[in-house]
Amino acid sequence: MSGLAVACGNSNRNQVEAMMQAIAHRGPYVSAIHEGDQIIAAQNYLQADGAVSGDRVKIPVRSPGNPDLMICYDGQIGNWADLARDHNISDGPFPEERLLLALYHKYGKEMLKYLTDAIFSFVIIDGKHFFAARDMLGIKPLFYGWKDKTLYLASELKSILQITKEVYEFSSGYYMDSSGQLTKFAELPESMPKLSDSSVDTMASDIREIIERSLRSRLDFSVPTGGLLSGGMDSSVINYLASKVYKEKFGPSAKLQTFAVGTEESEDIQRARLMASYIDSQHHELIVNLKQFLVALPDVIYYLESFDPSLVRSSIVNYLISRYAKEQGIQVLLSGEGGDEVFCGYLYLMDYPVEELFAKQMECLGFLHNNASLRLDRMNMCNSVRVVAPLVSGELLQYSMTIPPQYKQKPEANRKIEKWIFRKAYEDLLPQSIVWRSKQEFSQGSGSADVLPAYFEEQISDRELAEAQDKYPMVRSKEELYYFNLFTEYFGVNHHALKTVGQWVSL
Description:
Blueprint (H helix, E strand, L loop, with lengths): L1 E7 L4 H10 L7 E6 L3 E7 L15 E3 L2 E12 L2 H7 L8 H13 L10 E9 L2 E6 L8 E5 L2 E5 L2 H4 L6 E3 L4 E4 L4 E3 L15 H19 L6 E4 L4 H18 L6 E6 L4 H13 L2 E6 L2 H15 L4 H19 L4 E3 L4 H5 L13 H10 L5 H10 L4 E3 L5 H8 L3 H4 E4 L2 E4 L1 H6 L6 H4 L6 H5 L1 H12 L2 H10 L6 H14 L3 H4 L9
Parallel strand pairs: 13-14, 13-16, 14-15, 16-17
Antiparallel strand pairs: 1-3, 1-9, 2-3, 4-5, 5-6, 6-7, 7-11, 8-9, 8-10, 11-12, 18-19
Helix pairs in contact: 5-6, 5-13, 8-9, 8-20, 9-12
């Protein structure tokens, strides 16, 4: 996980340096700028990215056989080992970058069909030409802007705004070539695929195998690694598996470090404590309060680049625990992000009949690029921590689409059980109070959703809200108005910047 900035056209080094300075947090370990004839390209890396300092490897990474062919890259390829074997990519620094360059050299834009289990944003430079792309779900961020017929691309909004106010989010599942035009290369299906007729036991076994394979392919414990543990189903599964792999690697007495955050005795704190004891982890708790939330909010809005209340509430606790983990020496954090999208965990989905669930799931996945994936990326990267989310897996997503909807949200008595098949897969491996714990958003379980809306309801008058809504109809509450004001203080009342902000379906 890293940062990139590229200028194509009539630019200069000072501009690109300013862009990179705005995202220095994404890669403080090593960085460099390449100045070409028509293209200036810059890249930075975390140490956890496997980056090497000094002159051993030039950055941006070059093709071994063609120094004009190079890549600026941010992402992770789950099926890297298989692709590397098929395309003769040797071990060594920056293997994913070298793989992507080899794929581009051999297949051109058709390289994208091989990245079915990857999250990415990249810009490949080939002399005076470039090829940029972003993964189908938009898990990795990418923005672009124009000024004086020059195109700028970068990992974050704030980087582009160093140069121009004409800024856009790079569309998920699209590529762009030197023409400057966006072309779609991947999209979520509009209709349900053929559903599996496997037994529940077989589907549960398949789910376990896919998730464990995803975790092992993305994690090697080569740097200090910990797990974000909320005590919910998603994070509990990931930390259970990670702890098992950790003990395999370092011995049965070795303890994975886990991190929980919440207000006093919030439900997340209590359930995470139970799960940490169950997997025998070295557990850390960060107890937070309203004052700490208010102090952190300006930084959270700045790094998050959003003012959506639901997203901000969950992001602020993610920010605080990620920062705390960094202070403990952690360089990589494991996350359970993705389980709700893959297995239909959001409670609002219960309002729809089973025959509409697939369409609503695809809609939910479509929200990721400027909502939940922002928290996953920004609230860890701003603390220079690499995040790994094994449930964000192309293989797992493809498999989940074939699971009959009634097994994702299973009717039982007078209610539905969300993520039922996922829970079923681990019911014999985890404590029952974890497996069957009702879904709570991160902000609810940690307590931030209880204190922040109430605080702003008292601090902002009805008149202030009404006046703001006359100017900015997208502002839906007093809490959102406060976040909106912080956002515009940093990024301006600029319709281009405002249009990059996603708003969740409910407050």
